[in-house]
Amino acid sequence: MDTMIIDNVKILPKGQIIIPLNMRDKLKLSIGDEVALVCEDGKLTIENPIIAAMRKLQKAMEGEFEKAGLYSDDDIVDLIMEMRREEERQINI
Length: 93
Known about the structure:
The chain has helices spanning 21-26, 49-61, 64-67, 73-92; strands at 36-40, 43-47. It is mainly alpha-helical. The chain has a domain at 35-92. Strand 1 (36-40) and strand 2 (43-47) form a beta hairpin.
């Protein structure tokens, strides 16, 4: 498990905060890097924007596979194969 780092920061007049150097080093953040601020359940976290977007997508899609009758990886592969066969049929028409 990663070592927890706790540090206090002040909010500057324009709403800016400075991420302490030890945290930037730990997260391998450099000048110009983008981060996502995620506020959830009373907590503010700084995340990789791609991971934050994937987490949001996963939450939005929760339960949709079951609604579509997809319960396993095999079900998904079968659906893809059927879609490919249908596409080939339409091309050959």
